[in-house]
């Protein structure tokens, strides 16, 4: 056990799985970086933000495959390779680039198993960066996991910390279905204690990162961190929050969510994906349908506005949910002092 | 003219496969008209020698990806005809349990990675299958079939490049039947397939898709190159489509004489029969008895398909995930 | 006024707008059909299901442009043309093919205006077919409007009848933003009275197709027809339903929806898009947040399961919502006999 | 060697544009290092003669689409430098009100259809702009700039075909600087750009992207062909990138001597100065005074940008739709 960054945790999961299973290969743009370059340094980058650094050096060109800039062909190749015996981990550098290869994800890998009557397995992972906060503007800052959660046949993982990232990525690589693994680009340098050995975190099991009986806070990915911070500050005010990190949006641990709601009857959902048909809507609808009798207040959603992600830092920081907005939302539904559990 | 120096078994199997495709498709044409077959059906009639000529160079250890016009490729790759017919009728006994239908027939155990409802869907997959063959060192080759129309899809073009960059054991077979739906290749395909192959650093071969022997030999060269680790190639197959784009299309964009002439002069089965009987490789009787066996097989497959039960409620929810 | 099919209504809207405004051009695969063909018949098809028939003959090759099979290039071309003075109506044959061109929709046309600080206009329409019921299987039957509704910058229209289709398409063509226009392939032969003259139906104004004070039924596209039928049958049982057709999912007429919910306090949402992060979830979340105090029962959603669309007719008819499932859902939330309005 | 028979005004304007780009970019390189500039910044230094040589053949009535490395194209097309700088700093006075940033600078009034954060995003748009020029009969031509890396994107390849099929007044300028991010074109681009042009039935031109006169003349031919209604062409521009892929990239994949040699031997500004002064077209003083004027302009643009106010809360929600 030692302190590792989100970046290191992901790198370690990849390395350990590649050592364990020779069928695991990495595919992507500059996942090594430097092929054909005049310096003869075939691993200059190890990914645009250095996440796959060292893997080319250890595993060589047959296991770490740099690609031309042509997402449809290499994401599709990952699907074809998965259906024929490899277990690829493909990198879609930014999830915003899904527009260049959605068909291979939506109509090919996601549907093989069903269309082919259960006779295909497509064990692959697409690692991809998401999220605002980097001043990367409208085409490099989207969250977009709702698109993937919408598509039957895909599993969708949004790890909220280094520990989560390692365990969930190992699980993703071992899973026999196509998995989309969302890495928040702002979190790569976040650190926490992460075991050195391999471990996996099962899909569809939410994690309670804070417990408190007044309000249920559900948050996705980086928003878990903010929700925790909000919960800690609210505790000082005497409002106890249970924070739920669903970990995977598909499959979704509906049981844990509904249990917590049964306890608190008050719900705030924090999500950085666009609001319409987004993740917060999905969770809210689940609760409004299945836990209606438990609800003591309207379900509140803390989300970005229905706009593209703006460039200017002043606007971007208004765009993404922040701790203050979470706190106000919780206060607006929290029970009166007398009824509080905490 | 291509040689007849082919193993006699291969020839016999190939003739049977071509005849099976022809009868399968002609029968679907009739059955579709009765309204009993649901969905979109695209017939491969007239193009049999292409799929069969290519696949005669392959074994179950090799992989192919197909298109919306996939029945011929499936049969050529050895997929069970009865299970295919049942699938097209949407029966539980179908090769995909009735969940796929005509456009999604697949049989991975035979190296058949699926028909595909998406034009240009197959070539990227074939890069991946070729990568598997290469890295797993199983000696296999992966072949993408795609149409002249599909040759304009970005996915196809990117795949040509990727296959070259990765030096994959892959073959890209352009089945150029002159039309994508109702639009002629002469309108929609700028430049040439040959120059496109060069544009992506790839060997180019071409052949007459109505001559089994030509396809077999030419595709064989490309496939053997790939097998030897010499990289990918494009095989441009010149063909003609005998029916409408899909069942229901009256083909008002083509002169009916064109199609009639194709059927008269470029029937791969007639060509095969003439050449092999003239060369004394098969007797007319031998081929006739294959024809009869195929007729019986198709008849049986339709009868069984019609009699088979439909999938039921629990089938709706199964097979989405391996585990969930 | 005369009876027209959904197909004819759409064709008429296109024809009338093309006559009115020379900048309106049609772009798509086989929207004429026959180019280069040996018969010399340049308009053999008029669209794969005949919707654009006759337009090439009237407007010629400069206004009705057949394309190679390369959606990214011609959908992108529509965006580029719209930004530079034309008003294209592009056809994406089946919405399932969005995977081949999503980038041009999501990252280009949808974002131009915002990214460029309000200085671009991209007036174009993408007409596309959606929906199950045709035994067209997993890659030709999806609904997918949630994907588009999720993306800020797009407007999304799902017309529920021939009358709606004509008026909404004319509005779409005159609108200065990118509009995605969803045509249900099973409805092309549906007929109703449609005015011969041009008329437009404003976006963001829901239509009440049935009124009744017990339960609010919200339905999208073809589901409106089924909801109406359900409402008619329920009336006989003494349950009065208000049926809301939002017409456009983006912009959404939240006011009308919330007003109706305030009246009935009971809601059933009928939608044929996939359930996760789908349209029904979006509507449910809106109501659970904004009309919580009005709700007298859990919000019920009638939706397909989280699976690809199956081929076999037995399965497909279980997949799509039907009148019986709508009726049961309404009954499950309807008020007791004594409290009914009807 | 290309001729110097160019209108002197065009030459003067082009020199100023190239110098402006150079100074703009060198200044950004410095400012970025201070941490004050947010987001991703891709510098066009060393490639100035390409954008300027092409755009010197265009007017505001023509359209261009650019890339993530877009500052040079913007300046070449006449976009206001102060408003560009303010945009890169995310100010309300920026050309996009601070909402776009470096990768999304656009000015439709100048026929500048936008930088683009998506590799391969521009070519389809240019097919559309060319269609507008053709149908609106305004005599305009549309030009897509894209990199060697982008030449492997399906969107780019499809667009080459579409432009040929529609016979559009379009020019596709491949700015081949030898790298896409950290990957060399020698690895990622199979075949040749020339063969790709042929593969899509398109005229092919090539030129030295560090020689303004060569680019101007060669691109001019392609642009005039398009203007005369003779259809699309590809212009392959040979270039080199002087800085990392984006600011922050140390370029450990390239020999530093390579870059040094490029800077020494293939500096478009030095070449321009040498040729024009030797030919007596400009005096060194004349060019020096342009240099000074540009230095002042850039200095002012940075000072103004830093002093300008940031956008505020209401700006977050405006400009999503024309009406909603
Ligand atoms: C991405 C996509 N675009 C369009 C279609 C509709 N479509 C189905 S088949 C076809 C024509 C394909 O032509 P070609 O590749 O020449 O194959 P052929 O039908 O001639 O065998 C089209 C346009 C589709 N299925 N997928
Ligand atoms: C669709 C897409 N894929 C990948 C990227 C990441 N990316 C940005 S620039 C770039 C390299 C582009 O290379 P090239 O086209 O040669 O242009 P250059 O940077 O050399 O000017 C890449 C891979 C992107 N922005 N968009
Ligand atoms: Mg064809
Ligand atoms: Mg480059």
Structure in words:
Chains B, D: GO terms for molecular function: pyruvate dehydrogenase (acetyl-transferring) activity. Chains B, D: This is Thiamine pyrophosphate-dependent dehydrogenase E1 component subunit alpha. Chains B, D: Keywords: Oxidoreductase, Thiamine pyrophosphate. Chains B, D: Residues 17-312 form the Dehydrogenase E1 component domain. Chains B, D: Its cofactor is thiamine diphosphate. The complex is a heterotetramer, with two copies of chain A (342 residues) and two copies of chain B (324 residues). With 342 residues, chain A is α/β, with parallel strands linked by helices. Chain A has two domains: 2-194, Rossmann fold (3-Layer(aba) Sandwich), CATH 3.40.50; 207-339, Rossmann fold. Chain A is built from twelve helices and 14 strands. Chain A has helices at residues 6-20, 55-59, 71-83, 102-109, 112-115, 145-150, 162-174, 222-236, 254-264, 279-290, 313-319, 323-333; strands at residues 2-5, 24-28, 64-66, 87-94, 125-130, 155-157, 179-184, 191-194, 207-210, 215-219, 241-245, 248-250, 267-270, 300-302. In chain A, the strands form three sheets. In chain A, strands 3-2-4-5-7-6-12 form a seven-stranded mixed β-sheet, sandwiched between helices. Chain A has a five-stranded mixed β-sheet with strand order 9-11-10-13-14, with helices on both faces. Chain A has a two-stranded antiparallel ribbon with strand order 1-8. In chain A, helix 1 runs parallel beside helix 7 and helix 8 crosses helix 12. The longest helix of chain A is centred in the N-terminal third of the chain and has 15 residues, at 6-20. Chain A is globular and about 70 Å long. Chain B is α/β, with parallel strands linked by helices and 324 residues long. Chain B has one domain: Rossmann fold (3-Layer(aba) Sandwich), CATH 3.40.50. Chain B is built from 13 helices and seven strands. A five-stranded parallel β-sheet of chain B has the order 1-2-3-7-6, sandwiched between helices. In chain B, strands 4-5 form a two-stranded antiparallel sheet. In chain B, helix 6 links the parallel strand 2 and strand 3 (170-176). In chain B, helix 5 packs parallel to helix 6. Classes of the chains: A alpha/beta (342), B alpha/beta (324). The interface between C and D is large, with 45 and 49 residues. The complex binds thiamine diphosphate (2 copies) and magnesium ion (2 copies). One thiamine diphosphate (TPP) sits between chains D (67-69, 117-120, 146-150, 177, 179-181, 241, 245) and A (29, 69, 71, 93, 97, 100).
